Predict the 3D structure of the following.
Amino acid sequence: MLMLVGKRAAIRTLQGWATSVLLDAGAVRECEEHGWMMDCADPHARDRAFHIARRDPPSGISPKAAAVVIAEVLESVGDTCPECSR
């Protein structure tokens, strides 16, 4: 079955862009119940996210700065949902 994906909304912040890259690479996932981002602890997915960030950074951002933003977002994400673990 062919599914068409609609146009994605514009990303307004670097953190939003980094979160999108991390989700697409499979390095983080969203809690289905609460929406918190959770680290998948997959080193290959992290490598893919850094590769994507360096290869295709947002306009006006250097590849090195894009990788730094990816690292910052990864550091801010835990491996469990804070609301599920209560």
Notes: Strands lie at 28-30, 37-39. The CA atoms of residues 7 and 20 lie 14 Å apart.
